[in-house]
Sequence to fold (282 residues):
Amino acid sequence: MLKKLSADLYQQMKADLDGLKGKEIPKSQMLKDAILIVQKYLNELKVLVDANPFLDEEEEIWFFKIEKPRFYRWLIFYTELFAIDNTKPMIGEKELKEHYNDQMRYINRFFRSHEFHYQYFRMDSEELDKLYFLRGAASDKLDMNLVPRVDPSFGTGHEYLFSNFKAYEMLQRYLSKQLTFGIDGPIENKKHKKLTWTGERVDLIELVYGLWLTGQFNNGEAGLRTIVEVFQGMFDVDLNRYASRFSQIKQRKGMSKTKFLDQMRDALQKQIYDWEGEIKGK
Fold:
């Protein structure tokens, strides 16, 4: 019940946030409005949890490890973006690029300063979940100097840290787009139409691994993480747990381990055969 109600609430929040994109308002005002929207839905999420107590420890861990950070990341993202936008230099593309590079360096330092927890997050590990994502667990007191005051009924501290990881990876993709495609300029023009990956993320990961393992970029010198980050930016998709998702691919049972690549091959072969049939029929 809670998962369904929370999923519906998230979709409502995303619809409200997407609605801001069509408004002709200054960027700073849009960011302020976005922050208020996310805060509103976080409050509603707390009411939802209070009215629907967790069924067991597994559901509580899911909520504080996965679900609340899914909401909370947007508050951190828009708050950080507002600060970045308000402190950027007024003139000079070189200065603006350096400003964005400074933010990228700050994010990288943040990840390094939380290396153990960040790797735990990226690998989708589970060994310490009961310490990290159950309210009142002893580890709630760990690193409390690094996180804001947490409502003990609606947070665990590590949940805030995971929200930061998600938000900062979103910021990385945003800043990478600014630095790659042009400072604060739209890339949705006649030459660069924006594409959003709407298929399964695990399918894109399967494709990325295939391209990496066959050395398709930079004469085979491009690293897997670099390729993943490029695809994330190009197609506006979150692939931050690509290693654990690839492990799921390796453990597939009852189906081909290269299911998506097989589908692509079959679709391409069918198109070729159809085309050859049309040629012969002429």
In short: The chain has a mean pLDDT of 84. The chain has two domains: 2-194, 199-282.
